[in-house]
Amino acid sequence: MSVPPEAGAAGAPAGSGEEIFQVSRRLRTGIEGDVHEHLVEALYADAGRIAARAVSRPGRERRATFDATLDRIVTSRLWGFPVMLGLFALMFWLTISGANVPSALLADLLVGKGYPWLQELALAAGLPAWLRGLTIDGMYLATAWVVSVMLPPMAIFFPLFTLLEDFGYLPRVAFNLDRLFQRAGAHGRQAMSTMMGFGCNAAGVVATRIIDSPRERLIAILTNNFALCNGRWPTQILVATIFIGGLVPAHLAGLVSAAAVTGVAMLGVGFTFATAWLLSRTILKGEVSTFSLELPPYRPPRFWRTLYTSLIDRTLFVLWRAVLFALPSGAVIWLSTNVEIGGRSLAEQAITGLDPLGLALGLNGVILLAYVIAIPANEIIIPTVLMLTVLSAKMTGVGGEAGVIFELDSPEEIKRVLTAGGWTVLTGVNLMLFSLLHNPCSTTIYTIYKETRSARWAALATLLPLFIGFAVTALVAFLWRALS
């Protein structure tokens, strides 16, 4: 309330306590009745309005609010899960579809134009061939692939995810999944960290901080790897398009491929529940904790703040970690295919040694070596596999050369390269399964170590999914061959 200077007591300094006291006394005399009664009436009126919105009384109809109407749908037993699956399916579809164009533009800029320009610059500077190969063919191309493949999906997924978070929908997801996670011996809030893991497993591990119980937070950390991160989507989509979509007529190929990828993602959720159930009854026994889940009111998302938070605090932070690990990985890829011992490259010798195990798993030595080399980042699995397949098959003239990460023009050409390397439908199916179940990338492993401050838990988080991946692919390969 603004009071003119002349309203104060005579002689009292402006803004002093005496002036305020005199003004309040004058204003109080102008109010009819008891001031305390007016205050109490106002308090009870506000309480009555709050109770009318929140309390249901038998025999009386109360006007439904927007929050209550929407909650009846998104948290109902009938519609809660379909709405949840529909929203996340839409978010994944937008991420996958929307990332194609910017990924292609980045690949053209960084690989199609940037790679030749750097080669010319290195030649002009007089760099020796081995140094050009190590830095440009290895480190630069590996990093360029990671950026072009990883940045667009994260730049789409994280803002969409944050918009749902700001709107107030994610607590409703935890409400819907709470019972399933509790039956598995986990915490209901793990639903949020699992959803975050679909964008990036490292970010999903950090998101487990919302779980207060140390035991249940460990369960959430150890099982977050079963959520398909954006680095594994390119492998899933490409392999499904080539091998699963190729089994049906062309007009059904897209639908069948999408169904296959969705099925693998849902299978990952199933492994999350199964592994959480196993851990909670063995090494992480304990009572399931309860928590009061307060459903906040829905509110309009703040677009610009959401964009800043998701791009700066999440997307660029995770991308920076991936780039740090992609640089040395690119060097390893180049060295393994160019350093020779006894007339054979290190990669050739490793492939020969890993082939027996790979074939037993329905895979091959190329795939196993690619996953060893590409531990720093899942995004470089496909280029590493292609490069090693060309090396293994002794092929030439397919759009690249051994020792250099390259891109082919179409899925048909990629299929021709893989088929020539001995790939079958079983190889494609088990690669999709192994991509889901293999060990976390080094960024996630490092994040787990930082969050748990324990090398033991980081090792378990690494080896447990790898063991499950070996067991599942070996079983599928055995049944496939037995029934063929």
Give a quick summary of the entry.
With 484 residues, the protein is mostly helical. It is built from 19 helices and 2 strands.
Biggest sheet architecture: 2 strands, antiparallel
Based on CA inertia axes, which overall geometry fits?
elongated
- In angstroms, what is the radius of gyration? 29 Å
> What would you call the quaternary organization?
single chain
Range of strand content: under 5%
- Please state how the strands of the largest beta sheet are arranged side by side: 1-2
**For the terminal residues, how far apart are their CA atoms?**
85 Å
Layout of strands and helices, then pairs:
Elements (H helix, E strand, L loop, with lengths): L16 H13 L5 H20 L11 H9 L5 H45 L4 H39 L2 H14 L6 H8 L3 H7 L6 H10 L9 H12 L5 H31 L22 H36 L1 E2 L2 E2 H15 L4 H9 L7 H13 L17 H10 L4 H13 L4 H11 L2 H29 L1
Antiparallel strand pairs: 1-2
Give a description of the structure.
- Strands 1-2 form a two-stranded antiparallel ribbon.
- The relative contact order is 0.09.
- 71% of the residues lie in helices and 1% in strands.
- The radius of gyration is 29 Å and the shape is elongated.
- It has 19 helices and 2 strands.
- The chain is mostly helical.
- The longest helix is centred in the N-terminal third of the chain and has 45 residues, at 80-124.
- Helix 7 (190-197) packs antiparallel against helix 8 (201-207), helix 9 packs antiparallel against helix 11 and helix 18 (442-452) packs across helix 19 (455-483).
- The protein has helices at residues 17-29, 35-54, 66-74, 80-124, 129-167, 170-183, 190-197, 201-207, 214-223, 233-244, 250-280, 303-338, 346-360, 365-373, 381-393, 411-420, 425-437, 442-452, 455-483, and strands at residues 340-341, 344-345.
- Mean pLDDT is 79; it is low at 1-10 and 395-403.
- It starts with 16 loop residues before the first helix and ends with a helix.
- Strand 1 (340-341) and strand 2 form a beta hairpin.
